[in-house]
Amino acid sequence: GDSVTQMEGPVTLSEEAFLTINCTYTATGYPSLFWYVQYPGEGLQLLLKATKADDKGSNKGFEATYRKETTSFHLEKGSVQVSDSAVYFCALSATGVAGNMLTFGGGTRLMVKP
Amino acid sequence: NAGVTQTPKFQVLKTGQSMTLQCAQDMNHEYMSWYRQDPGMGLRLIHYSVGAGITDQGEVPNGYNVSRSTTEDFPLRLLSAAPSQTSVYFCASSYSGPRNTEAFFGQGTRLTVV
To answer: What local confidence, expressed as pLDDT, does residue B1 receive?
Structure first.
């Protein structure tokens, strides 16, 4: 079945450091790929998405590129801020899945220190 | 806009008790779903619905029931609570559009079964 694997955390960085959170997936066909973010005490919210190979999703300084050849969708940010501290989830919506249901990775907690 | 509203936010149950987690959305979304979030396992799909009167099982449906009598509401029922159901529960909704359609999440219900 479909699955998403992302690096375990926590990831601890100093402010203005470069961030990479790795995400790889297994799915048949051509899934849509997402990064969701969960701030403390809140639900998940969409950070960015990509629909097809070589698409780049971007938002709030975060970027991720849909790499079909390596089945990856790594999240990057050039300079993190304390306000980026959150849990990040990589997810996919597979071809033909009823209701566009999402398959999630395990989540990566990011902690940014001043 | 309220978006997706879940109640209660916190709940403690004794083993064997039953309860209903409420979920309501005001965006006229066709698709609704319930996930549980456990440490290191991301979010796993419990049940979902593609419209009023239509529900189906997700990855981890055992011990849970759902119904969808209206577009707005999608309650999740625990029939006889077990400690293994201690988790954070999220309700989500989305349009019945393409696979890259954004899902909107509630703030979650933290359930502890003792």
So the answer is: 65
Q: Give the one of B42, B49, B106 whose C-beta lies nearest to A43's C-beta.
A: B106
Q: Residue B99's pLDDT band (boundaries 50, 70, 90)?
A: low
Taking an 8 Å Cβ-Cβ cutoff, which residues of chain B contact chain A? 4, 31, 33, 35, 40-45, 48-50, 56, 58, 90, 92, 94, 96-108
State chain B's mean pLDDT as an integer: 93
* A20/chain B closest Cα distance in angstroms: 18
pLDDT above 90: percentage of residues in chain A: 78
- Interface of chain A against chain B, CB under 8 Å? 4, 8, 31-32, 34, 36, 41-46, 49-51, 89, 93-95, 97-107
Strand ranges (E), A2-98: 3-6, 11-14, 19-21, 23-26, 32-38, 44-50, 56-59, 62-65, 75-77, 86-93
- What integer is the mean pLDDT of B86-100? 87
Q: Please report which confidence band the pLDDT of residue B14 belongs to, taking 50, 70 and 90 as the band edges.
A: very high
Tell me how far the alpha carbon of residue A5 is from its chain's centroid: 10
Residues from chain A contacting residue B49 (CB–CB below 8 Å): 99
